[in-house]
């Protein structure tokens, strides 16, 4: 196992491994342990008591964070006709159809962060499922990325809309902002996202729903949050 750097080792000393913290305490510690020279991302990781192998226990949705993520999001839109102009005027970074499908397939091009598609383009986009799916880039109606209202979808994404989705290990990983946001903005984003995840509990989920909640900076250690007080 690779030896951790000096900053990481110093950061670990600030956290009691046997302690669980309130959300506000965890945010404060995540900021204190973000010692890198760049503006580190603060990420939320939530382990849920669901079995993602079952369709009725999937947890997936999207929410607009009050203060965004601090990241410039590049949007690729699959559309045709009047929707091309609508997407361009709304601020899409790339808009097209078959030409982008071929660029992805032949050139392994992935200079985008989110894919939006109009419903009539899903036949084309569906052929990219094997490459977009594993990267979490496949458009989906549940996250609002399959829609004829491309202008609304793009504006929400640019404003800080994030998708949360349980992975095969039953964990949701979502960024809630940057170190430069400070405590208050990160707390606002955390609460909005955590409330959405709690509300998204599937009816088929039995037992404890929120198993563990952890906050961490890009280069820092994880800070455990008390699962009995996940909403701060």
3D structure, described in words:
With 232 residues, this protein is an alpha/beta fold. The protein has 2 domains: 6-68 and 162-229, 2-Layer Sandwich (Ribulose 1,5 Bisphosphate Carboxylase/Oxygenase), CATH 3.30.190.20; 75-159, Rossmann fold (3-Layer(aba) Sandwich), CATH 3.40.50.790. The chain has 8 helices and 9 strands. The chain has helices spanning 6-12, 23-32, 82-89, 98-107, 122-125, 129-132, 150-159, 182-199; strands at residues 41-48, 60-64, 75-78, 94-96, 114-117, 161-165, 171-178, 210-217, 223-225. A 4-stranded antiparallel β-sheet has the order 7-1-8-9. The chain has a 3-stranded parallel β-sheet with strand order 4-3-5, sandwiched between helices. A two-stranded antiparallel ribbon has the order 2-6. Helix 2 crosses helix 8. The longest helix is centred in the C-terminal third of the chain and has 18 residues, at 182-199. The two termini are 36 Å apart. The mean pLDDT is 91.
